[in-house]
Structures are given as C-alpha cells and as structure tokens.
C-alpha cells in the first residue's frame, strides 16, 4: 500500500531522473560514437575527412548558414504577430541551433531558450511560446514530408534491404502522422494549457530558473488562436514552404561533402535519401543531444545501400558536425551577449486577451 510519504519521494525521484535524461542521452550517444569509431579504420576515416579540404568545409558551412537563415525567416513568418521584424528571429534561430547541437538539452532546450529570449524584444511570453510551438510544428511536418520523399526514392532501389527499410520508414511515418495530427488538435482545440505548463517547467529546468518568468502567465491558447487566425494562413504557408526548402537544402550538404571526399557517382536523389532518413532517425532519438552516435550510425546504415563504405560514411558525419561547431560556438556567445543586454528590453507587447 502506498504511503503519503512515499508518493512525494517517488515524484522527486521521477523529476530527478527526468532532469538527467539529456545527460544520459549524451552519455549513450558518446558511447555509441566511440564504438562506431573503434570498430572501423580511424586512419581511413581521417583520410576521407581530409579530402574534403578547407574549400569543401567552407561550402558545407555556407549551406548550413543558408539553411538556418531560411529557418529564421520561416519562424518570423509563422510567429511574428508583434511586429518586431525579422532580425530577432534570424539571430535567435542561430542561438536555438547552437544550444541544441552543443549543449546536453535533449534537442529541445534551444526552443525553450529561443522563446524566452524573444521576450527580450518586448514580445509577450505567451505569444513567444506559441510562436515556438507553431514553428516547431511546421518544422516537424516538413521533416515528415522530406522523410516520405526519401522513403519513396529508397523504394526505387533494387535491393531487398532497401525495400525493408523503406517499409519501416513508411510505417514510422504513419505513426508520425497520428502524433502530428494530435499535436495540431491540441493547438486548435484549446488543449494548450498542458503545453504551457510543460514549457514553463522545461524553461525552469534547462535555464535553472527557480520561479516562472513574469511573462509566463496564462494565455498561450489565446496566442495560438492569434497565430492560427484565418487571416494569417498565407504567412503560415510561406513559413512551411521555407522549412521545406531548408530540409531540401540540407541534402546539398551531403552531396557537396561526398563529391569532395571522392564519391563521384553520388546523385542528388541519393543525397536526399541519406539526408532525409538520417535526419528522421536523428529526430526519433531526440533525447540524445545532437544525435551523437545516432547520426553516425544512420549514415553508415544508409550509405551501405548506395555502396558507400562505413569509413566514408563516418567521415561524412564528421563533415556535417563541422558547421555545428563553427556556427554553434558563436551562437552561444551571442546568447550570452543578449543576456547581458537584458536591461535594455522594452515593455512586453503583443499581449493576447
């Protein structure tokens, strides 16, 4: 029989375990990455990575920069109901990415932080939170459609293993469609109260705040209704299209890297399969920060279907990690700069009644 004293203890233990999920995910990812490296030829991986060269790495970083700019414009399109302009969304999109790829925050800390920092430009807390929710929804919808395109292209490969993988991807996408439909229903049918409480809890956990922000008062559902208003559907669709363009542009990263490594016969369609399905695998393992080990394993698995050896696939993953660091470190410094200028924040606007 459960006693009154044991219930709070269980709750405290559950919260403590939940707080450690990102760290546990990071540890699991590091171990997986180390195992993948240990069972393959490190010298061959380093040689393949070296063939990319400074010019190839610069091109990959440039493509990633364009991707994040597109995502920033998309966020502004779906979330800017306060009239603050595009600039803050572009800056904070880089911060969101830097936090997600370089800190142990289970790939959601960047979104929580991005919503919080947006209030520094005078956006009301509920509206900032709602904007993050809608932007993330369109981003995930875009990834699901991108993964569907990858699965359809993979199904054309005359390979039994490719056919099985395409079938598994299709089954996973059916589940994703159900989850995304439920997520949309929560936003549109007045179920955002729970979302609001979870966002506030995540913010306090990841940002080590002991009390809710003054802007974290009820109103997320009203803000969601504002963003989903019929008059804004043109902006919402523009944001969605920008996210789709960003996902497709990600395939260019892989195509450039493989060409530089020396895989001359890779087609852009094959790059789409590699990028779309590796990103889907990485997203499914969201508790692992930046998909450590998961991205590498996914590219090894998928690359084998197109005759790409494991050493080359691991080198490809390393190339994709370069923009994470090159763009992520300045983004973390930008975050600290913004925090330091918090005293210059204007009064919140865009309140939703």
TrEMBL record:
Its main location: membrane. Keywords: Cell membrane, Membrane, Transmembrane, Transmembrane helix. It is found in: Cell membrane. It is a multi-pass membrane protein. The keyword Transmembrane applies. The keyword Cell membrane applies. This is Membrane protein. It comes from Methylobacterium nodulans (strain LMG 21967 / CNCM I-2342 / ORS 2060).
